[in-house]
Amino acid sequence: MGLRCSVNTLHAFLFSDFLHKPVWMWLVFLAVVLFLLILDLGVFNRKDHEIGVKESLLMSVFYIGIGLLFSLWVGKILGQEKAFEYLTGFVVEKTLAMDNIFVIAMIFSYFRVPRIYQHRVLFWGILGVIVLRGIMIGVGAKLVSEFEWVLYLFAAFLIYSGVKMLFKQEDEADIGANPVLRFIRKRIRVTRDFHGHSFLIYRTNPRTGHKFLYATPLLMALIFIEIADVIFAVDSVPAVFSITTDAYVVYTSNIFAILGLRSLYFALSAVISKFHYLKYALSVVLIFIGAKIFVSEMLHLVKIPPAVSLGVTLAILAAGIVVSLVKGDKEA
């Protein structure tokens, strides 16, 4: 009885803010996402194959188009202001998640995941992201609704993250020394080689005849990609809550941005290093979003409309891309 009460309390805590919107709105969103996932694995990538740059770009344009079309639907149902908030959250999340591409590339390299199986890992990783982001956004929405000062805490964290990003030196993480990897290897049997696109396999002990379940390196890569997603969500979730406290807008903009970025990975992984100054532009965006909360909500000096916020965000990121391309050409 006690356990059932605890589960019900947790469910109410996480999802009470989500249910402020009609259930049919959530069903529409989930139906679109489910359709995209079925289309992805069941049609476009039914057979394992290496995804080239052209295919990656076409899939990305398709996903971005769906994300932008959804903003029109948000505007029609919730109003123009919510649509601009959705678009700002979509752009910020998409840009923040680009850093994740470096980490994903490192994980695939460390576990030597063949390119033919990389999309499968990223696809199943999306399912984990949908659940984990839902939990984190549910907690965040409830905290913001119950304790207004949490929003200022998010804003301060964004300013701190932005300033830290400005001065942070690039360094490569040593995945082999990661304590999570050591913990898993001590407690789970892991094969040295791949077995097609399988995450788990059974092996028979030749002496006893007993079967034992083994994880493959593909599953290890998936686990680490999910961990990376949780770490990056620590920045992205407060960022979107600083743009809007509407849980529906926060969650949908997060998921649509991530869905498209996974497809874009195969094109960006080779060229993302050229956009060196995008990191600095993103840090300025984080500082701007965090400062906006203090200026408009806490000090009541000026209310920055969502359309203006979206315009400033796009202008800063565009400047980072242009400077990266110009500086990159000169250095080359």
UniProtKB/TrEMBL annotation:
Pfam families on file: TerC
Keywords from the named record: Membrane, Transmembrane, Transmembrane helix
GO annotation, cellular component aspect: membrane
Keyword Transmembrane helix carried by entry: yes
Protein topology in the membrane: Multi-pass membrane protein
TM helices/strands, residue ranges: 23-44, 56-74, 86-109, 121-143, 149-167, 212-234, 246-265, 277-295, 307-326
InterPro entries reported for this sequence: Integral_membrane_TerC, Integral_membrane_TerC_rswitch
Annotated compartments: Membrane
Family from the record: Belongs to the TerC family.
Name assigned to this protein: TerC family protein
